[in-house]
Design a protein that fits this description.
44% helix; mainly alpha; 79 residues
């Protein structure tokens, strides 16, 4: 479900890229905040390698893979 919402948001951004840029704070951040930050955000209770509350955290190398690979979304593990 979470991955589906993220995929839809990314697909929407790809389709509408020529029209209007995606507003991360308004369109993507609420999804991550509601579905992901409890474990992968700034207030997560456990030490987790995957952080989704920052671009650096979402795109960091996690031992040969990335949650989000901005250069190649097909390689993104979150999708």
């Amino acid at each position: 479900m979470i991955a589906s919402a993220f995929v839809l948001a990314l697909a929407h951004s790809a389709v509408s890229a020529a029209e209007t840029p995606v507003d991360f704070s308004r369109e993507i951040l609420p999804i991550l905040s509601n579905k992901c930050f409890i474990c992968h955000g700034p207030d997560s209770r456990k030490e987790d390698l995957l952080r989704l509350d920052s671009f650096e955290g979402a795109t960091s190398d996690l031992g040969g893979y990335r949650a989000v690979d901005p250069g190649d979304l097909a390689k993104s593990e979150i999708i």
